[in-house]
Each structure stands twice: as structure tokens, then as C-alpha cells.
Amino acid sequence: MESKVDSVNHDLKTLSKDAKELAHEAKELALHKSGEMSKKYVEFLDTALTKAKEMPSVAAKKTKEVAVTTDDFVNQNPWRAVTISAGLGLVLGFLFSRK
């Protein structure tokens, strides 16, 4: 389960990095094309960059919370978890086998 959390965390960091690079490139292109940008647009891009930097930590925190909650549920209700998993497997198997 930890590897999945690490994988999601890595994917989110990559997404954040790409978003920051794209926003930076858009900012540079807009500055080059127009010469001067309005103050609001620059502030908007800075805000977007700030939020993109915060995204991986927030997503990792939420992912860990979900993993802990799931682990607690399975430990407290093992047979219910097995039943839910089996039922979900049957439903998904039925849906995917229909062509």
C-alpha cells in the first residue's frame, strides 16, 4: 500500500512540476509578446504557481489519510472487507466480461 501512496505522490509532484513549468513558460511568452502585462495577470500567475507548489503536499496528506482509514476499517472489520472486496470483484468481473 505504501508503494501506491509513493507512486501517487510521485505522480502529483510530476504534475505540479509540469504545471509550474507551463505557467512559467506562459508568463514568459506573455511578457515577450506584449511587453507589459497587467498587474492582475501577473498576480494570477503567481497565485497559480503558489497553489501548484502546495498541491503535492496536500494530495499526499489526503492519500495518507485515506490509506490509514482503509487500513483501520480492514483491521476492525476483516470479514466485511473480504465480503465487500469479493462483491466488488464479482460486479467488476461481470461488467468487464460483457462485450
Q: Can you characterise this structure?
A:
The chain is mainly alpha-helical and 99 residues long. It has three helices and no strands. It has helices at residues 2-34, 39-76, 78-97.
List the helices and strands and how they pair.
Blueprint: H1 2-34, H2 39-76, H3 78-97
In short, what is this structure?
This protein is an all-alpha fold and 99 residues long. The protein has helices at 2-34, 39-76, 78-97.
Total helical segments: 3
Structural category is mainly alpha
Tertiary shape = elongated
Work out the oligomeric state of the chains in this entry. Answer: single chain
Mean pLDDT over the residues:
81
Order of helices and strands: HHH
Please indicate the percent range of residues in DSSP E strands (runs of 2 or more): under 5%
Low-confidence stretches: none
Through-space gap between termini: 32 Å
Helix content: over 70%
Overall number of strands: 0
Major β-sheet, in short? none
- Supply Rg: 22 Å
List the keywords.
99 residues; mainly alpha; 3 helices; 92% helix; 0% strand; elongated
